[in-house]
Structures are given as C-alpha cells and as structure tokens.
Amino acid sequence: MNLIRRTERRIRAAGLLRQGDAMVVAVSGGPDSVALLHVLFALSQKPEWAWQLIVAHVDHGFRGAESASEADFVERMAAQLGLPCAVAKLDMPAELAASGDNAQAAARERRYEFLLETAQRWGAEKLALAHHADDQAETVLMRVLRGTSMSGLAGIPERRTEKKVELIRPFLRIYKSEILSYIEANNLPYVQDSSNSSLKYSRNRIRLDVIPYLRMVNPQLSEALNRLAETAADEDAYIAEQAREAFARIVRTGMEDTGAGRSCELDRRAFAGLPVALQRRLVKLILSYLISGDLVEFPILERARLAMLQEGTPHLALDLGAGCRLRREYDRIRFAVQSPLSPSPPTFEYIWREGTERLPLPELHAELRFERPAAEGTTGSVTTPRETENSAIFDGDLLEFPLTVRSRRSGDRMRPIGLNGSKKVKDIFIDEKVPQSTRDRLPIVTDAAGRILWIPGVKRSDVAAVNSASVHLVRMTLHRMPEPASSYFTLGGPSLLQDIQEVLYSEETIQNKIKELGETLSREYEGRNPLVICVLKGAFIFMADLVKRITVPIELDFMAVSSYGAATKSSGVVKIIKDLDVPVQGRDIIIVEDIIDSGLTLSYLIDVLERRNALSISVVALFDKPARRTVELEPDYRGFEIPDAFVVGYGLDYAEKYRNLPFVGILKPEIYTK
C-alpha cells in the first residue's frame, strides 16, 4: 500500500480531518514535511476531501544563509502547488542572548506561536505536523532515559488542541523509511538541515548513536517503542478519566476567602480510599487546575500525596512552589494559590446596643441579627424558640449591655455550657476540629463584662442561660449575606427570578453539603446494599446528585406521597400516589427527602415501611424546617436547617413552579398570597 493510501486510511480511521477543512501545513523543507505536504495536496484534489491548504515555514535565523535558502525553497514549492505560504523570519540568536533561555525550547515555543497565529489568521482549525513513527520512538526513549510517567510514555499525541486549533500528525504511525521511499519514487526535492547531524543535541545523539546501538539487541526497537507508546496512551487516557471522575466526586473548588486565588478542598479519608495510582493522578489534576502544568514533577506530587496520608498529624502545611500551598487540618485537605500580597486575617470589633436589629460584619460578609422572642410557659417549664448552629438564645436580664462582636484574641477563655469551669477558646477550636484557616474569621460575642457569650457555629457559654424564670429573651442569629437571585440571570428565566426574595443557599453551597452527606452515607452503609427511596417529586434533583456521591453499592426506587396539593402548608391528609416496585422486607432503607416541615408525610411513610418489615429505616433530608413540625420526628442525616419561610428551588416548588432553579431561595409572599 503506498503512502497516500495509508495516510488517507489513517485520517479516516482517526477522524483527523473532514471534508472542506482548512489547515496549515508546517513545512521545514526536509523530507518528512515535503512528503506530508505532497500527500495532503494530492488528497485535497479529491472531491470527497477538498481541503484548503496553507503552507507555513519558520526561519529561526540559527544558520544564516542556509536557513534563509530553506525558506526560499519552501516558498517556491508552495508557489508551484498554487498554495499560499506564510514565512516567519526570526532572529533567535539575538533573542537568546537577551533572555538566556534554552535554545531548543525557545525556538519551539516561537515556532508554535507563529504556526498557531497563522492558523487563526487564515481561519484554519487544523495544523498538520510531519512527526512520524521514528520520531515517536526517539521521544519515548528520551523520556525513559530522563525519567517519566505513564503520560510521558504515551509519547507524542496524534492529535491535541491548543488555542482552539487542533494539531494533527497524519504520519505518526508511518516510519521514516516509507517516507524516504515515497520521496524517491516521486522524485521530490527537499533540503537537509545540517544541524540534524550535530551531536550536541540530545535528540540527535539518541537517533544517531543510541538507537542504532540498541537495535543490535532488538532489531525491532522502534516498533516496540511505538507499541509501548500506544498502550501507554490508552491506559493513560483511562486513568485520566478516572481521575476526572474522582475530582468531580470528592474535590470542592472555590476561591480563597481573601479573593487571592483558586482553591481545592477534599476529605482526607475519601482520598486515602483511592488506589495509589489514582491518588497521584488526582494530585496532579488539582495542581494543574490551580497553577501551571509545570508543577507536576513526581517528587512534588509524592510529597503532597504522602503529606495528605500521614497519620497522627492533624495539622500540616506544605509549600509546593509557584505560590501553591497544601494545608491539612484534621481530615480537611486544602490546596490554595496565595497572592504574595494576601491580606492578613481580618481584625474587627463592633458594638451592639439595645434597639438595633442588625449589626453588619462586612469582613465576614455576614450580619448578626438580634430579636426579642417571647418566653411562654408555666412554673417549672419554659418554651423558647429553638437554638440552631447559627443562632443562640440568652436571658436578656442576665446580660450586661452593650454587647461586642469581635475577632478572636490571644488568651480568650469562655465557660461552655455543660462544662463546670472555663476553657481556652484555642482548645475549644481544637476539640471541635475547627480548621485553623477559619478560626480568625469566626465572630466572638461578648457582653460589657468581657464574658464570651457565643462563638457562632462552635459553642455557646453558660452565661445568661435561659431557665424557667426567664422573661426577657435575646436571640442572636448569624446570617450570611444572601446571594442575589440576579446572579442566576441565565437560569430559570426572568419570570422565575423576579419572584425570589433572596437566595438562601447557592448551588455551590448545596453541592458541597451533598458531598458531605454522600461521604457519611458511604461510610455508614459499607457492605449493607441499602435500598434508597426517593420521595417524589421534590427530592428527585437531590436524589440524583446524592447517589453520585455514594461510593457503596445501592439500589434505587421511587415513591410519591403527598399532603400538599397547591398549598403552602401541609393539608394533613396523606396519600400514596406511586408505590414502590421492589419489596422492602429485610432491607436497610434510606429515605431521601427534599424538605421536612410538619413531618406528617414522612411519618406516614416510615409507618408504612415499618409495617412492611424493613430491617432499618433512615431519613436523609436536604432541608429541615423544625418550626413547622407537628409530629415528633428528626432526620438521621440533615443538610440544612432553614427558617420558617416558604422556600423554592432545587426541586422545591410552589404550584409545580420553581423546581428547576439551581439554588434555594425564599419566595416573595405576594406570589403565594395572591
């Protein structure tokens, strides 16, 4: 089979080109690129291909008159074929004298820069290069000798995309001997680059000395190295895909709180459960996401991997270079790019005086809200509003005003409720496993006597604790500043977004919480093959995202149970609209709910499953609204506890609308009171 037919078959098999494609052909004037140009030109004359070819040549200026004559040769050849030709004349010796860069690397960078610019200028989506199978063998052998990874063993890719231009190598499976035979048979002129015979270049020494010597051991050395490259490329592609899936499953991406750069966060236990090969590839993927791909050498990857796995070290920081740091805080691993001018942790102090309902905390993008709920009860008992992670209730008559909200200070102590005595705030943070990177960003609430009352999300003190005699209460709630619905202007359409009062939980916040829930369920249901039941309709989006985060075998089924209709409150009448398709007897059951408010629907469903002899029943709810509860019921796994407001989005609806919003927000009252 001649070279033209072999090349055409490979182009078809690999889908390298389509009919009518415009492509730049890089031509040095040597036999390989001359042959490639003539083969592509011959094929372009066929109606089924009809390609537009543009010849491109770079004169680096290294060899004076010799390289100038090569440029003239390429221009004449393009003219003979009736093809446009773009030539770049560079003065690389002068550039290198000024920069001190490596000659071969700098020349390659400038060459590809010109070739890609030419493609963009001509509107060409392809750039054809003349690398062949012997070039592939040289590349693989060079990388083996220098030390390489599976990706390095894959050698030169047959195709890759750079700056929206696809680089293709139609000759990559064709050997030099076949190309020279074609040149000779067709009496094609070409030029010889004298630098190709110089032994001062590593690649030339490999080609001229090392490979001929090794062929005395294996005459089929080039073929063997090409087989290795092909096998490595396939296996590399597979593990790369596995790494991308692992990245999507266990890595949370975001920005540093300071806004200095991007960050990646993951759970150490999830990382430790991956095979070693996948651990290394995941670290490489994280670093490539955060910074330049240059920071992917094995010693750096291995340092990071081992630091992440090290036992008995709850806190660790590692500088990976290029501004990237790895920080480990208990089982929380964080990679982040820091700006050299990253600001210091915020220091703040604000005074709250009675009568003010809101105290802005701009450093934390939050505000502290104050209200005075009523305490109702009889002698010996008191009913107070429920405390949550971000709210605390105090006896107002036992507080000393004004209150202060400030950042932490060295030597801070508080008396945690339930503990007989005081404790250093630093020790509380350690016991509660509060990451070091967030400790300076937690507000501390004190009274006029300097007593620490509350650290939102961590601990409250025993100061001014509510009891049966309490009359005047003060409730404090830390409220993160809402994300405007307008930030989702491309989703849901303006007719939906204009109905949202404020966004409670962004899409990113929801997904981060779902990852946590998935990791917990994976640990607790190892080896149990639970039946996961989605309560339709609202939970279907939550269910779809949650099961992707569960790493143990599960089965799925669906059940539709309703007590709403088109109302905003539960009707109290529960009915099964769609029943399960599989029996539950003797099975571990996980019920997936979008939201629990009155608890009537869920209580009814649990009763049904218990009567069907389920082995165990657990409830995972993304949202919980305990203020609406009319039955005694608590979810086993909870995402968020939400205020008593009508919320929609992410599966939650009002009159079958708003389910498709990617966030959860509060619906404007005028929408459901019309």
TrEMBL record:
CDD domains: PRTases_typeI, TilS_N. ATP binds at S28, G29, G30, P31, D32, S33. It is an enzyme of class 6 (ligase). Gene3D superfamilies: 3.30.465.60, 3.40.50.2020, HUPs. It comes from the Bacteria. Its EC number is 6.3.4.19. Residues 403-473 form the Lysidine-tRNA(Ile) synthetase C-terminal domain. GO terms for molecular function: glycosyltransferase activity. The N-terminal region contains the highly conserved SGGXDS motif, predicted to be a P-loop motif involved in ATP binding. This is tRNA(Ile)-lysidine synthase.
